[in-house]
Amino acid sequence: MRDVIIKHKQILEVVILVKRRIQAVISYCSYSLIVALLLLPLLPPQPVRAAASIEYELLGTHPQANAQATAVGKTLHKLQPFDNKIYVGYGDAAANTGPVELNPFDLDSEAFTGSELQIPSEEINKFRIIGGKLLTPMIDKRGCLVCANGYAEGPPFANRTPVSAVHIFDVNTLNGTDRWLVGSSDQSVDGAHVWRSENGVDNWEVVQAETNDFINGSEQYRWIEVLNGKIYMQAGDVVDESWQQAPVRIFDGENWTTGTNEIISLNNKTIVFDNKIISTTSGLSAFDGETFGEVTSFPGAAQDMYVDGEYLYVLRTNATLTRTNNLEDWQELGPTVNNASSVAVYDSRVYIGTTASTLHGSITALPTFTPDSQLVSGESTVAPLYQTRYGTGGYVNISASSIAVDSADNRYIVDRGDIVKLAPNGDYLDTLDSSNMEDFGEGASEIFIDTNDNLYIPYGYGVKKYNLSGDLLLEFGTEGSGDGEFGSTPSSAVADAEGNIYVGDSTNKNVQKFNSSGVFQLKWGTEGSGDGEFGSVGDLAVDSNNNIYVTDFINLRIQKFNSSGVFQLGWGSYGSGNSEFLSPTSMVVDSNDNVIVLDRDNGRAQKFASD
Question: Where is the domain boundary, 296, 331, 366?
Fold first, then answer.
């Protein structure tokens, strides 16, 4: 199989090929990817396979985690290799299921060998290695509200409780000698606290505190990281009862300064890699000490992260693993194990923790690092989100959620509600928004342009049809479950060569057909998993014969119908193999009537013959 990698300017060039004859919508979830596999040879419902997977074996079940009373408590939240052992975080702070035992998996005896320390915390979910010792903060001290709190440290392992606090979420050092703790004191309007000991042992002082106008004890510093000789931290929930962040606070060893107000992380899942603070915010995000933004090359949503040498490993929420050496080039390492929740790498072996308290280890070697841009025959990938300057027009920072092309090959990209218009060479032409679009309301999330250059936008409980000058030509639909009614904003709207309009309704689990004037013609579908039934109605596409294709990310399949709604064909099931999906979110039919499906959580696109 021939793999096509399309980046930056090439991405939108490929969209032209897809939509020159059938102007189908490529719909996306937030911060998703543009399909870039249009020249792949066809497989008759057999897609291109992603990179080979690593195989795993069960190493054992953590006894104390498995004995927890809640599903959260049983989950292995964090893994930390140390001293030829794998230390494990578990517990449920919300349900107060502590205390917790520091019981690692010993790699010599290949067993959980017993508790090295009982920690008076409801949960463990963070580890640090500082000065040759392993530290873990007491994120929710057991048996009291405000009391002596701190961290566990060893070997030899002991509990250190040098400050009075409700929560200690993270611990770190700036110079190797000092110690920093961050959390919440719940004692005053300055609830979010940062403590420091210059010698790491005693004389702890509050060095930062954030004011909360509504004192509820949830104002907290959740993370603290060291980057380029400075230490960074940020408090949240400092305005009212919802998360409102304070600025990033920065200390360089002598002076304090204030940084961005962007939310770097809502939790303590932060890590330093490639001279940036990485967090699981918005899929995966990076902060270089001054600017913060999404790592747009990362496909999917992050569950856990681990740095081993030159590589950042990211476990996705769909239990697949990927790695990078520069935050730009990613290598797919395939599915891990069911219910994966945490990842670590030690001595070239991958370790996976699960929500079922089990620990797994890889039994096949890690492959040579081959990023997506160097994939070879038999492998596949998708292009990264187009989020940079395109051409010479000056439009910057596009975050595409839908794309369409008109008869003149101009591109229309939905960018946070507005529609950005680019020339065929990529130059910025215009922005379609409330200033030039009649009754534009809150804007667009999905768009479709038909062969007559009519623009369709799902909105509210219906669909609006415009010409490209922004004049509203037609709108139809209302709330409900009857003919011409929708249970929520339609998931997608497309038009065939005759001008008929097809609209997906994921709430009512059906597809409705209207004529070019918006008059209801027919509908089909009901909730279920049989032929013509839907668990969800996602993206719609239409081919040159007016057949309609519908993605269903609940039943994990694609269904094909003729223009009368009669079922023709269906394919797909759960998995990462050929004709299998984890989240078939978006779809397009190219000019040869091939169906290309974007599977976000598998991080790939698959190309199918339409018959």
Answer: 331
State the Cα–Cα distance between residues 593 and 588, nearest whole angstrom: 9
Provide the domain limits for residue 230: 84-331
- Does the residue 172 lie in any domain? yes
CA dist., res. 530 & res. 538, Å (int): 16
395 and 278, same domain (yes or no)? no
Amino acid identity at 241: E
Residue 580 backbone phi and psi in degrees, to 5? -115, 155
Same domain (yes/no): 300, 416: no
Which of 331, 360, 395 is the endpoint of a domain?
A: 331
- Residue owning tokens 């490639």: 274
- CATH code of the domain covering residue 515: 2.120.10.30
Nearest CA among 141, 143, 161, 290 for reference residue 228: 290
The rounded distance, in Å, linking the Cα atoms of 105 and 477 is: 59
pLDDT tens, 91-111?
Answer: 999 999 999 999 999 999 999
Q: Which two tokens stand for residue 471?
A: 């004049």
Return the CATH number at 152: 2.120.10.80
Q: Which band of pLDDT confidence, cut at 50, 70 and 90, is reported for residue 453?
A: very high
What's the one-letter identity of residue 517?
S
- Both 600 and 459 in one domain: the answer is yes
- For the chain, the C-alpha Rg in angstroms (whole number) is 26
Query: Exposed, middle or buried by CB within 10 Å (0-12, 13-18, 19+), for 367?
Result: middle
Q: Does residue 449 sit in the same domain as residue 500?
A: yes
Closest among 354, 312, 362 to 89, alpha carbons compared: 354
DSSP per residue over 115-134, as a string? Answer: -S-EESBSB----EEETTEE
Q: How far lies 333's CA from each of 50, 205, 285, 532, 563, in Å?
A: 9, 45, 20, 35, 41
Instruction: Give the bridge partners for 548, in sequence order.
Output: 542, 561
Separation between Cα atoms, residue 289 and residue 316, nearest integer Å = 25
Q: pLDDT tens digits for 284-301?
A: 999 999 999 888 778 678
200 and 285 in a single domain? The answer is: yes
Given phi > 0 = left and psi -120 to 50 = alpha, else beta, which region is 181? beta
Count structural domains, the chain: 2
Neighbouring CB atoms inside 10 A of 148's CB total 15
Q: Does the predicted model carry a pTM greater than 0.70?
A: no
